[in-house]
């Protein structure tokens, strides 16, 4: 590729910028702890995974064999037999959520989607795109869906076949909706198992809960119908991507045979990224379950360290069980901008990810928050 000296310089400058900021992130759940350099050579090829990786495709340059391994891995992780599941490598958590909602809407076309106020902003957009009826549910102080409010609204709406969008780790506080209790309460109000759909948005925690000793219910064995995880969050990837897994019999309802590609179309995107499939494959092949457990234990203990340091300074920081997200009162703009923290209302959070090998970056942020604390809102009333 011929680039002018100016353009070459522009790229070189950007390269320096990226090197400098590679490990900047402590406010968003993006791991920078990856090395896919052995895959660079595949950038020579236009890999395209359009269609269903279970079937041969007319487009020869695909990485379907690797996608099959990735989906087998995640089916096992989420406790569903791979023969009973179908999923694919997505462009990210949002696409996986849309896929789950799309299947649900096809199963129950006249139903309402119930989701909590702490749900990721993209779900309101998905509901619009799919033209679904939706109903917003209150949350508890720690960010879980308020199941009393959920059941009250389902009854008020005289909903026969609700679609429940459960957070398995909310964006702001890592809160995990209690899907056991949701199912018990649905049964109590006369809704049978075959008459609701339960999608799990496990963007970050989908790669945490399988590796902790006491996970909250999150899997197909616990009653979910589909699950979406981001690949660029806990796993880590230079390209945003994700994994979605659903029940195969449900996916078959949305599948259409397309003669143009001689394949089944059952994904949100047509052309799909074959390189990110290789990355997800390399990520799962290069780490054993015990490696993931260690990495996640490390992130959880860093999060606990942050909570304790902040609390020792009377800053009411907290985190949910099995969460690497530490919530604390929103600091001044200087601090949240300097450390690129995510803020929402009067809250901010930090997220401990595998690239935080030690407490150095965390301590810099905590020191700044402590220094800043005189400007914090009413700490004593803050949950
Ligand atoms: C809970 C939750 N769901 C969905 C998403 C969207 O995921 P993605 O950015 O991979 O599309 C996020 C992103 O932060 C999230 O936190």
UniProtKB/TrEMBL annotation:
Class of this enzyme: lyase
Keywords for the protein's UniProt record, in alphabetical order: Decarboxylase, Lyase, Pyridoxal phosphate
Alphabetized NCBIfam families for the sequence: PRK02769.1 (NF002748)
GO process annotations (BP): carboxylic acid metabolic process
GO molecular-function terms, A-Z: histidine decarboxylase activity; pyridoxal phosphate binding
Modified-residue entries (N6-(pyridoxal phosphate)lysine), positions: 233
One protein family per Pfam: Pyridoxal_deC
This enzyme's EC code(s): 4.1.1.22
Name this protein carries in UniProt: Histidine decarboxylase
Family label: Belongs to the group II decarboxylase family.
Top-level taxon in the UniProt lineage: Bacteria
Cofactor: pyridoxal 5'-phosphate
